[in-house]
User: Fold MFS transporter from Bacillus cereus.
Amino acid sequence: MVQYKNRLICADTLNTLGTAITWSGLPMFAFLSTGSYFFTGALYFTGTIAGILVGAFGSQLIDRYSPKKVTLTALMLNIIVVLLLYLGLTKEYFVLLIPVTIISQYLGALTSLSQKTWYNSLYKKDNLLKLMGQRSGWIVTAKTLGFTLGPLIFTTLNTNAILIDALSFFICFVCLINIPIKDALPKKDEKNRKKRPFEGLKALAFNSNVRPFSIIFFLEGMIMPIIMSTSIYALTKEFHFDSRDITLFWLIGGIGSILSNYFLVGSKLFTKNIFKGLFISGTLMSLGILIMTFTSNSVVYLCSFSFVTLTSPLLSTLSEKEAFIRIPDGDQAKTLGGLLSLSQIGTLLIMLISTLIVENFGYQSLFLLISMIAVIRFVVLIYVMKNEYLQNQQKYKLN
Assistant:
């Protein structure tokens, strides 16, 4: 079993690395090739659209069949799609860039959700937080490396860099194909095979134990994506950073996220006194955003950003773990897919209004709004955890 779990982590890490290289370098390549900001901006929205579509139409496939079947099928289809994207770009058919990218990101998001469900289902719920942190540590490391190398690789290899993504999908397929099907989630009966679209959102609406996490994930989607994208604007315009300095910004963010996940694995703070860990993480994150809002010093800005990237994954992983253990067996994928959709919808909504806020009131006003959202997310999470703790204490006394 251990070797299969490690192989899942390895495959997920390679998949993430190839994807990070492609989607950090491709927007820059599209701009240099077309001279149009439309393609560059649109490529950043394709991931959000794909996440919403997976939650609405794809996640129930994992519960309907099995994570292994869905993962392998999505990987093979994505190899074909990426090769079509490569051929289209070599022929300069840029009009196909957006629709093909949405399909590829949809398959990538479906693969990621399927692998996550597969991995989480193999562990006992008592050890899930630590082991989710272990998996996330490898994935964030791959993202950091991919985001750092992506623009450089595309500058050197041009369209040939896209083949790296196809190669990573193929290696993942080979890693996973001979894992016994018994190590996947059990097959569903015929009743559960008749799933409909939006089952994930319906599951959230009717499951009182998971419903509060709808608010948490919706608000969570409004925080980090907008901090990352707006920081590029702030560092470039206010602090006059060049491309080399921006690389340092990405590196600091990646290191913070990596340390966060290794902290989950090695520290006993969240297992011994979870409320203390929550309070420290939520406070540091809110203070970090506030300091980023008001500082006029680039070094202080970057240090504050490191606090945010250190604490945000702690809260996100804890939220995901607490949601997962409340989901009935066999419904994990569709419910996690519904939460993913809500998170991506939150990202889409905040992105739609962020430009208006920044242009009319400055990025500081947007960061103030984000800091308030972060506090609300933190308070709701504490409330949910507190209620669960009190209910367990009451059951213990009755017994």
